[in-house]
């Protein structure tokens, strides 16, 4: 059986110590499209060392920056073919603004396994602490494994976010590049689904798709720039549910509603939902 919830839930995924530098941060930002206007002081805060700030979403990928091999979905109680896997949800809580460089230790575990009938959802949690032992950020992610459900487990809680019954306060358009996935894969995700046309076709897609976490990062930057005047320190958390694929070269449309200490967000491509139930939590 590919998934054994009795073994998987609560299983430790170990402890990892890793580092990043300003060059890693710059590469990540550039892979999201930062610096499109090289004369903009706001863009240069993402794209040069001078007054460099770090997008909160960087914490989600920091542990995998040095990965050069395709990922495998092999955990205690979980063995799944990579071609059957999609990213389901992603969340990060930043306990303070991320530093330009750091050495951190992350402890990860499988927190839940849910049965969606035709698919299974595996949820992982990880907390990263700095060299002084102080928590820097916490991530929670889920992967959606097609064809792996039906084992009689819980369907899990609803994560739906109710949007206000009014027009959005902001409508932000962000083009992606045709080569966006080829740039982003240098940040540690070498899944061939995003670069190999034959692999993408075998997985049921007409061409390679953009990494979900690339869309996640692009929208994080779009909202911070378009609503928060580019101030990353105002963000305490960022969560989303991946509801559709993006093909490199498509334009993202992001709608934002302001609500107290939260920004409620949806992102579409040609009216096709790609990010839903998205919340940016403010400090």
TrEMBL record:
<dbReference type="InterPro" id="IPR029069">
    <property type="entry name" value="HotDog_dom_sf"/>
</dbReference>
<feature type="domain" description="Peroxisomal multifunctional enzyme type 2-like N-terminal">
    <location>
        <begin position="18"/>
        <end position="147"/>
    </location>
</feature>
<dbReference type="InterPro" id="IPR054357">
    <property type="entry name" value="MFE-2_N"/>
</dbReference>
<dbReference type="Pfam" id="PF22622">
    <property type="entry name" value="MFE-2_hydrat-2_N"/>
</dbReference>
<feature type="domain" description="MaoC-like">
    <location>
        <begin position="163"/>
        <end position="267"/>
    </location>
</feature>
<dbReference type="InterPro" id="IPR002539">
    <property type="entry name" value="MaoC-like_dom"/>
</dbReference>
<protein>
    <submittedName>
        <fullName>Acyl dehydratase</fullName>
    </submittedName>
</protein>
<comment type="similarity">
    <text>Belongs to the enoyl-CoA hydratase/isomerase family.</text>
</comment>
<dbReference type="Pfam" id="PF01575">
    <property type="entry name" value="MaoC_dehydratas"/>
</dbReference>
